[in-house]
Structures are given as C-alpha cells and as structure tokens.
Amino acid sequence: MSVKDASPSLSTPTTPPTPDGPASSAAKAVELIAQQYRDAIAALQEIMPLLKYDSRQTRRIAASAKFAPGLIEPTIAMVTSSSLAKERNLFNVYDGEFALELRSQVMPLFLQLASIAADGLFTIDSKAAISSVQALQTQKWAQHASKQPDGAELHPYVGEMDRSVKKVLNRRKGSTSVPTPTPAPTPSELPPGAKGLMAPRPAAAKTAEPESVADLFDKALDDVTKK
C-alpha cells in the first residue's frame, strides 16, 4: 500500500535514513560524541573507587563532613605528637589526611563535572526545543496542506503529530506538580582552601537564549492546538 493510500488512523510510515542523508549524518556525528563521552566516563570511573550515591543518607553524611576540617587537623596533630594518643591508636592519620586532600583538591573538580553535566542536559533540551519549534511550525503547515485536494499523503503524518501533541498535553494536565531542576553547583559550595578548577559561570547566565526558544515554542504549540 502506498503512502497516499494510507489511512489517517495508521501509524506514520517510516523510511530508513539514506546512507548519506542528513538524518544518517546526524546519527553518525552524535555516535562519535557519545563514544567519546563513554570513554571519558569509563576513564573517570577507573581513577578512584566511588561509593554509590544514596539519597537517604546524603544529608546526614554532608552534615557530618562539615566537622571534618575542624576535627581532623587537630586530631592528626595530637596523635602524631602525643605518645599517649599514639598508644591508643584510635585514629588513622593516612585516611584523615587523604579525606582532607580529597575535599581540597578533588571536590572542586567533581563540582565542575556536575556543572558540565547540567550544561550538557540543558544543551540537549535546548536543541530538542529548537527542533520542536520547527516541527510544530511544519505541523501547522501540514494541517492546512493536508486539507487541500493533493494533500492526502500528509494525512498519516499529521494524524501522528496531532496525537503526539495531545498525548504530551494530557500528561501535563495530569501532573500535579512540576519538578524543580537541581541547580548546578557554584563556587560558594567549595570547601575552604579548595584548590583546582572552580565551577563555571552561575546558572542565571544560561537562561536568556532558551527563554526566547521557549516563547517561540509556546506560540507554535498554540498555533497547532487552537481551534
């Protein structure tokens, strides 16, 4: 059955991307990017054994860690100077110094990685939003063109796009709350005396351009859904 004969109730016809077409080229470009990130993540995971993040414990652990600078340094001084403290052997000097150095030298790098991850997710959403604007504008044109005498071949595509938009809108209506994104870490979160790279620019500087994209999206969405 040809595309022209397809019923609007059927799923959108799909055609494999041509080897040299834009879709295929984009997929190959992103695969190269993804592989580089996979390699980088694998390399990072080999540097130091990491504990699995536990959301149930993070607040208590963070609160406990705040005592570290004021407690560990004088404890090291005491157990390395006092013979009585040495005999008790209650404190591991190496582990204590290692913990302090991690906070000073490595923690800023993890904060920067977290900021990079936030930037990456924001970039991906922004690119998806820009293409969504173009898709909605195309949908608006297709809604009109499909009603013309020669527009039958557009029916299944328009039907699928309309259903997709309605599905997302229904999800919005059914949601009772909108999750608040976790802000990227800022230099103020670094421990005292931290060394190394600082977390980059504040998050507020990132929002100007996507707000414009969001405005365009809202207008395009209104155009395709209004009666």
Can you describe what's shown?
The chain is mainly alpha-helical and 227 residues long. It has a domain at 120-173 and 197-227. It has 7 helices and no strands. It has helices at 22-47, 58-65, 68-81, 83-88, 93-145, 155-174, 208-225. The longest helix has 53 residues, at 93-145. The chain starts with 21 loop residues before the first helix and ends with a helix.
Number of strands: 0
Q: Give the low-pLDDT segments.
A: 1-12, 198-206
Q: Give the biggest beta sheet.
A: none
Would you list the SSEs in sequence order as H and E?
Answer: HHHHHHH
- Please identify the structural class as seen in this structure: mainly alpha
**How much helical structure, as a percent, in the residues?**
55-70%
Radius of gyration: 27 Å
Per DSSP, the total helix count is: 7
**What percent of residues are in strands?**
under 5%
Principal-axes shape call: elongated
Average of the residue pLDDT scores: 82
What's the structural blueprint in terms of helices and strands?
Layout: H1 22-47, H2 58-65, H3 68-81, H4 83-88, H5 93-145, H6 155-174, H7 208-225
